Structure formats: structure tokens, C-alpha cells
Amino acid sequence: MEGSCPWGGFGRAQDVGCEPDLCAWIVHPAEAWSNIAFFAVAAILLIRYGRADRQLPVAWFPWIVVAIGVGSTAFHASMVDWLLESDVFAIFLLTGFLLTTYLQHAGLVGPSRLPTFVVLVAAGAALGLVNPVLGYIGIAAQGAIILWLGWHLPMRGPRRELVAALVLNQAAAVALWLDKSQVACARGGFVHVVQPHSFWHILSALSLLFVYRYERKVEHALSGTARATV
């Protein structure tokens, strides 16, 4: 970014994909607007399940989804290097929360989740500060453990919810690969309207909807709640 651009006084993140930079307050519009999906999913979860789930640990989940939306929007609007680190940190809030939750379900974490959650998020944030690539590796590692635990724990929610989350997550990963490899990039008048990275955000947000639906069923079963909202 040139020094005369709104964000030109900051270091540009070493992050490349399909969308070229604009010299504007929103540097990557296609990547920025698609974060609306995270806010929409968080709103749906709060409106649909907020009252029924307010006593469950999973009640914090929609606010983590909001944090992901804020971090991702700030980064893609500016493409500033230190905001890339905040984007990665927000994702570690999600993976740290889910990994702590599943470790507790497995009996490996005591009644208080907070110490384990703080350690996992702090470790991930440290990796991201050293190098964003290490941060992504840490996210992938935590995600792999989450998937393994979610599939193998004796206490399970509806399998269809987990399968839906996995399918959407993998479709999102494909969209991210297409973007970072600069394959199937939109051109011409659509270059700042939609890109594969846009679908990475949208599909990831939708996968979190099903992750929540799955986890809330598990927590209602563990807490002995008679009937969980569908």
C-alpha cells in the first residue's frame, strides 16, 4: 500500500490471495463484507438458543463467533500486519474454547475450564506473534485434536450436526486453498465483490452454527436438562 493510502502508514501484512489491494479505507471489500456471516450466525444463536442455554458453558460460544467476525473484518478492511495477529488470536479463542470443552468431556480437565482455556489461547497467541504461519499451524493442530475428540467421545450430540459442521468446514478449507493458490479468482467487475476467500468466511460461519447445535445437545445431556430447544 502506498503511503498516501488510508492505511499506508502501517506495515502491510504478508498475506496474499485473489483480491488485489484498493487504496481505500476498505482494502479488500470482498473479504471484508463476507464477515457479516459471523455476525449473522452469532445473532441467530443468541436469539434462538440464548434463553435456553444461558446456564451452559456453550453460551459463551456466540460471543467468540462475534470476536472472530470483528478480528477478521478489521484485518481484511486494512490488511495491516498487526491486525493479522489479532485475526489469528480470535480464531484461537474458538479452538481453545472447543478443545478445552472436549477435554473436559473426556475427563481430562476438571470442573473449571478457565485455566486450560487461558493456557491454550496464550500458547496460540504466542505462536502467532512469532510468525502468523506458526499460528495457523497451531490452529490446525488444535482443530485436529478437536475433531478426533468430537468423533470418539462416548458422550455425543446428534451425529448429523457434527457431519454437517465437518462438511462445511472442509468446503471452507477448499475455498481458502483456492484463494491462497489464486485459483478460480473472480475477475473484472467482480474482483472486489466476491472471491474464494468470501466463501471461506461464509462456509466457516455456517459450520460454527452446527458446531454450536452439536455441543449444546451434549451439554444439555450432561446437565440433565429435560428437553433442549431444537
Unreliably modeled segments:
226-230
Contiguous helical run count: 8
Distance between the termini: 48 Å
Q: Count of DSSP E strands?
A: 0
Strand residue percentage? under 5%
What is the H-and-E element order? HHHHHHHH
Characterize the main sheet: none
Radius of gyration: 18 Å
Please tell me the total number of domains: 1
How would you state the average pLDDT, rounded?
90
Q: Helix share of residues?
A: 55-70%
Overall 3D geometry?
Answer: globular
Protein structure class: mainly alpha
Describe the structure.
The structure is a single chain. The chain has one domain (29-222). The longest helix has 28 residues, at 196-223. It has 230 residues and is mainly α. It has eight helices and no strands. α7 (159-180) runs antiparallel to α8 (196-223). It has helices spanning 29-33, 36-49, 61-78, 81-105, 114-130, 132-152, 159-180, 196-223.
Q: Helix and strand layout, with pairings?
A:
Blueprint: H1 29-33, H2 36-49, H3 61-78, H4 81-105, H5 114-130, H6 132-152, H7 159-180, H8 196-223
Which structural traits does this protein have?
disordered C terminus, globular, 230 residues, mainly alpha
In short:
The chain is mainly α and 230 residues long. It has helices at 29-33, 36-49, 61-78, 81-105, 114-130, 132-152, 159-180, 196-223. Mean pLDDT is 90; it is low at 226-230.
